[in-house]
């Protein structure tokens, strides 16, 4: 039996610290593990050897700073996680291992506003199909990350806003999907997961303070402070789309006037171009036309960029992030939108905050949220599970 303060309990704690550092990063050199955990190089070397002998980690030769090094990652067969992303028009599922490798990924059209039950049915079917495609042992599933395009109450896990997903109001997405699949499910909104995805795999790598701005049918932000997603006590932190730009402006779905969303979201922007470009226009198409030189589309995208920059300036003045990553279809416009964003940030943000800020397009495109869901599942799983080998103790109860 381990007792607090004993050598065995200290050793166990050190094992878990190393496993957690590697699990969250995907792979680290032994020197990086020592810096991350605060353990000595000798202690890290001994722990890595023990974990390798036990099959928990894999060690491969690499280089760091021009010198030979050893890269440590969790074993590819130590377990798997699943990411599920509900967008307003799609469902995307990915299966990944604990070494941060995506094993399978698939997306299909879905009108998520129609019915929560239909959405959960489709998600259950797609998860089961991808598990079958990969041929992985279902007993190895460590958890599922789930993204939804709406605010989640932190305490109850309930999806809150009837104006965003009226057919989902009052549902508990994690509880519903977890009951169907028999696996622990962790849920968050799509902007937070986009931030997490870009932080782990994309344009946010290497920074600890980040804002991910997603512009789609709405406008939201995922906030990373000191390397962690900041949700606020009620789970609604990052609702940048409802910063007021013009109190006499258009009425927003939230009931206020002139929110950023009413100047930037697709549902408000596309009607500006429909008289000249038709009613079947999408934001993706607007971006493509703008890149090809269409003057109307270029003007609308520039205006949207300036409005986003105004909201972003407020965010910078409050939180002073070192990086802002723009996601959604709009990010594909590149400098057509990033230039006006930077111009507005430079005009409205405190000069010191603006100087320290870099504004980048997302590197993951439409995959940011599902990869963020994988990262959420990875971050929420317990390290003792890996050390005890208990992932294979019992298979989840779904078929």
Blueprint (SSEs and pairs):
Elements: H1 7-25, E1 27-29, H2 30-37, H3 41-53, E2 57-64, E3 67-74, E4 80-86, E5 90-97, E6 102-109, H4 116-134, E7 141-148, H5 173-181, E8 185-189, H6 190-201, E9 210-215, E10 219-225, E11 228-230, H7 261-264, H8 266-269, H9 271-277, H10 283-291, H11 295-319, E12 323-327, H12 335-348, H13 351-356, E13 358-361, H14 368-380, H15 383-388
Parallel strand pairs: 4-7, 7-8, 9-12, 12-13
Antiparallel strand pairs: 1-3, 2-3, 4-5, 5-6, 9-10, 10-11
Describe this structure in words.
With 399 residues, this protein is an alpha/beta fold. 42% of the residues lie in helices and 20% in strands. Strands 6-5-4-7-8 form a five-stranded mixed beta sheet. Helix 2 (30-37) crosses helix 3 and helix 10 packs across helix 11 (295-319).
Summarize the amount of helix as a percent range.
40-55%
Distance between the termini: 38 Å
Share in β-strands:
15-25%
Strands of the largest sheet, in order across it? 6-5-4-7-8
H/E element string?
HEHHEEEEEHEHEHEEEHHHHHEHHEHH
């Amino acid at each position: 039996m381990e007792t607090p303060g004993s050598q065995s309990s200290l050793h166990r704690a050190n094992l878990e610290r190393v496993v957690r550092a590697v699990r969250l990063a995907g792979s680290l050199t032994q020197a990086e593990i020592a810096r991350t955990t605060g353990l000595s190089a000798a202690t890290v070397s001994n722990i890595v050897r023990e974990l390798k002998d036990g099959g928990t980690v894999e060690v491969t030769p690499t280089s760091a700073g021009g010198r030979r090094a050893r890269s440590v990652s969790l074993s590819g067969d130590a377990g798997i996680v699943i990411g599920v992303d509900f967008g307003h028009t799609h469902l995307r599922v990915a299966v990944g291992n604990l070494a941060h490798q995506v094993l399978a990924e698939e997306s299909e059209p879905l009108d998520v506003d129609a019915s929560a039950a239909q959405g959960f049915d489709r998600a259950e079917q797609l998860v089961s199909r991808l598990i079958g495609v990969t041929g992985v042992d279902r007993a190895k599933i460590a958890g599922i990350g789930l993204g939804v395009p709406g605010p989640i109450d932190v305490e109850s896990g309930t999806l809150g806003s009837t104006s965003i997903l009226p057919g989902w109001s009052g549902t508990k997405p994690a509880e519903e999907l977890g009951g169907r699949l028999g696996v622990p499910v962790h849920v968050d909104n799509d902007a937070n997961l986009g931030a997490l995805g870009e932080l782990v795999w994309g344009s946010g790598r290497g920074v600890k303070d980040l804002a991910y701005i997603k512009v789609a049918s709405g406008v939201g932000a995922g906030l990373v402070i000191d390397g962690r997603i900041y949700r606020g006590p009620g789970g609604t932190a990052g609702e940048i789309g409802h910063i007021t730009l013009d109190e006499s402006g258009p009425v927003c779905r939230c009931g206020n006037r002139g929110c950023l969303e009413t100047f930037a979201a697709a549902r408000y922007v596309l009607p500006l171009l429909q008289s000249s470009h038709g009613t079947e226009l999408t934001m993706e198409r607007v971006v493509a036309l703008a890149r090809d030189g269409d003057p109307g589309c270029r003007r609308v995208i520039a205006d949207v960029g300036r409005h986003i920059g105004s909201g972003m300036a407020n965010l910078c003045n409050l939180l002073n992030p070192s990086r802002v990553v723009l996601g959604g279809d709009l990010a594909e416009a590149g400098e057509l939108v990033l230039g006006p964003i930077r111009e507005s940030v430079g005009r409205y943000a405190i000069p010191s905050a603006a100087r320290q800020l870099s504004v980048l397009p997302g590197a993951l495109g439409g995959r940011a949220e599902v990869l963020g869901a994988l990262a959420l599942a990875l971050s929420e799983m317990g390290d003792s599970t890996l050390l005890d080998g208990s992932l294979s103790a019992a298979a989840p109860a779904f078929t």
